[in-house]
Amino acid sequence: MIKILIDCFGGDHCPEAPVQGALSALAKNPDLHLILTGDEAILQKELEGKSYDASRLEIVHAPEVIGCDEKPTDVVRLKRNSSMMKAIILLRDRDDIQALVSTGSTGALVTGALVRLGRIPGVIRPAFCPILPTMDGGLVGICDSGANVEVTSAHLRQFAIMASLYMENVYGVKNPRVALLNVGKEAEKGDEIRQETYKLLREMPSLNFVGNMESRDLLSGSYDVVVADGFSGNVLVKTTEGTALELLKKLKKDIFSKTLYKMGALLMKQMFADEKEFMNYQNYGGSVLLGTSKTVVKGHGSSKAVAVEKCIEQAYKMEKSQLSSQIETEIQKYEHYTD
Prior knowledge:
Elements: E1 2-7, H1 16-28, E2 32-38, H2 40-47, E3 57-61, H3 72-78, H4 83-93, E4 99-102, H5 106-117, E5 127-129, E6 131-133, E7 139-143, H6 153-171, E8 177-181, H7 192-202, E9 208-213, E10 225-227, H8 230-255, H9 259-267, H10 269-278, E11 287-290, E12 295-298, H11 305-320, H12 323-332
Parallel strand pairs: 1-2, 1-4, 2-3, 4-12, 7-10, 8-9, 8-10
Antiparallel strand pairs: 5-11, 6-7, 11-12
Helix pairs in contact: 1-11, 3-5, 4-5, 6-7, 6-12
């Protein structure tokens, strides 16, 4: 039985989205057991009238809620009864619980996970790895995307190892193509850290390193993993998502600007609906925090039920594949690079 904690407060659509997402995941996975953390009275009310296997769902009372403007270090010290910190502490203390899903404060989640859970042996720094769809119908993971603003070549090497194993085990990508985010494709491009990282990745026989990648090629389908520092990765992901959303808005505005365009749009209604779903981040789950001693998945703050369900699915597959053990084994092969 895979046991996963769900932090039910802190996101924009809490607790409705986490509860509904949890029930949908339970219905699809008979070996899944979920633990909801949050105000018990509110959660019980949210569950009223809904059909589910009560033997595989439990509630842990945690009345406090973390605000997005609260200082992460204060949260870890002072809000042990919040839904997020209660979940993190349970994840640390109980061997039968494998993972946590949260749509709450990113800063509090990262700080809490690092302070309370710790890292996989050999991992220098955990890193976020969100997923985006590519133009050929595939997926690309970006690691890191916000957890580590300043990095070394050793950090980036570990990000490549962890993200490659993640894409292979959770999404079934065979021999993932790994690229390094840079200002040009040539090997000599970039600063000293990028040049050193290029050399390290090229020397790894277990990694399918295909060279540098320019940001414009992120969604091309030519790459399965993109390695970046947290600052650049975060900007890359948000710029790509923002551009897609703005293009959709412009397309909608242009369609309604002329009668002829409206008539044409009616004939292409299904295609437009399909494209909208393709670009909808809700369909791709959350950003996993690779490298912590237990599995942590961070959903977007505006996640709805379908996104929470996808986050649970990510955590479930990570545990079924024993991803943490694989990361530890692979990183130990290059231990001299992590000193």
